[in-house]
Specification:
Layout lengths: L21 H16 L14 H11 L11 E6 L2 H22 L2 H7 L10 H4 L2 E8 L1 E3 L5 E3 L3 H18 L3 E5 L6 H5 L6 E10 L17 H4 L5
Antiparallel strand pairs: 1-2, 2-6, 3-4, 5-6
Bound molecules: 3-iodo-tyrosine.
The site of 3-iodo-tyrosine has 9 residues, from helix 3.
């Protein structure tokens, strides 16, 4: 795929052809809506371990996302090592202290008020796994020469969506966390300069006492997010 050889277009019949009837489609779309409506961002995790293979399968699902020219411009780091999680937490909290102490600006801090966040990030050590998603701004051949990637933010955003849906489907809770800036993750996780950290996902079982902010239940109605042209 990422060789220097010229790859030709060779169509093959669509594998895994799906052909649902309208009622089956309706039921399937409703069932998935119901499943995804039960996804909530949580900040309180059980510390109980989650098997590594579950995390790996969910990341493999993320790797099934469509991407610009099928370059798959993403990489993932999965961390359960307690020392490394503690280091990431310390580094993230250092950034967050700056953010909440004024770096964010008044408007941003006000927007976060109903979410109830602050510079303390215990989920980064409580959650049994952290998944850090990196975007590959450009690709590199083994000899270090570069090739271009296309639609990188779009592609990685879609992969993150697949990943969050896969984790939720597996019964796991997720917090999408984006300390600002996140460059420290390149050093900590030994990723090359071509890669940009996009987000940290804290992953695990929701704590028994987990809460969500009331405003998180307020979702825009379909009439507000959709216009139909038939
Ligand atoms: N990264 C900070 C701030 C933050 C920003 C947004 I936009 C959020 O939706 C939530 C938090 C933090 O994690 O606290």
């Amino acid at each position: 795929m990422f060789s220097r050889d010229h790859l030709t277009f060779e169509p093959i019949p669509l594998p895994d052809h799906i052909d649902l009837s309208d009622p089956e489609m309706r039921a399937a779309s409703q069932a998935f809506f119901d499943t995804m409506s039960k996804r909530h961002t949580v900040r309180d995790f059980e510390t109980t371990p989650i098997p590594r293979d579950v995390i790996e399968t969910c990341i493999a699902t993320a790797g099934r996302a469509p991407s610009g020219a099928n370059h798959q411009p993403w990489s993932f780091a999965a961390i359960s090592n307690p020392k490394l999680k503690a280091r990431i937490r310390a580094e993230a909290e250092e950034e967050e202290r700056r953010f909440y102490a004024g770096g964010a600006g008044d408007e941003w801090i006000k927007a976060l008020e109903p979410i109830g966040t602050n510079d303390q990030k215990p989920h980064l050590t409580d959650a049994p796994w952290l998944i850090v998603v990196f975007a590959q701004r450009y690709g590199e051949f083994e000899d270090g020469t570069r090739y271009k990637n296309y639609y990188v933010p779009e592609s990685v955003g879609i992969a993150c969506g697949f990943l969050i849906a896969a984790l939720h489907h597996a019964g796991l809770s997720v917090l999408t966390h984006t300390p600002n800036p996140m460059k420290f993750l390149n050093g900590t996780l030994e990723r090359p300069a071509s890669e940009k950290p996009i987000m940290i996902l804290a992953v695990g079982r929701a704590a028994q006492h987990a809460t969500i902010p009331t405003v998180a239940k307020i979702k825009k109605p379909l009439s507000e997010i959709l216009s139909v042209w038939e």
